[in-house]
Amino acid sequence: MKTEPAPRFAWGITGSGHYLKESLAICMTLPGVDLFLSKAGEEILRMYGYKLEDLKARMRIFRDSTASAAPVGLFYHGNYHTVIIGPASSNTVAKCALGISDSLITNIFAQAGKCGLPSIVFACDTEPEVTTESPSEWVTLNPRRIDLQHTETLKTFENVQVVSSVEALQQAITDRVTCLNISSS
Prior knowledge:
By secondary structure, the protein is of the alpha/beta class. It has seven helices and eight strands. The protein has a single domain, classed as Rossmann fold. The strands form two sheets. The chain has a six-stranded parallel β-sheet, sandwiched between helices. A two-stranded antiparallel ribbon has the order 6-7. A hairpin with a 4-residue loop joins β6 and β7. The mean pLDDT is 92.
């Protein structure tokens, strides 16, 4: 695995459509982004009308297609400066909070932590009632207590910032871009 000339953002997409369009719109404004897709993330992109070919024209894409999550090796060579997981499904948040890394997304989160890289997680289940857009309509959901607990646990992790809105996601990324002294497009 070769080292990139300049470290990049690693952006993970999971099986959540919670503000997916807005999250991808932010992603598209950043310089140097690689998109990491869980299997559920690939499915959700299709459900919301995104084509991998269109995304590949704008950024590198890594798919969850190896048992060992081989692309995480890129983290050991300084290829990334920041991990963003957004939107993050309750399943992904739970696995990350419990230290389970059995998918590409949970592996990049774990490796970011092991490499001391900052992570920003846009968690879906942050409030007792959440209104979100499904592929066909807006729906109101009531996250389970365990989902909210996992989100709270994740907030205690070193170098991890959990955000609960599109505005907070944008601000966290803006702050990171400023810290890194890079310009967005």
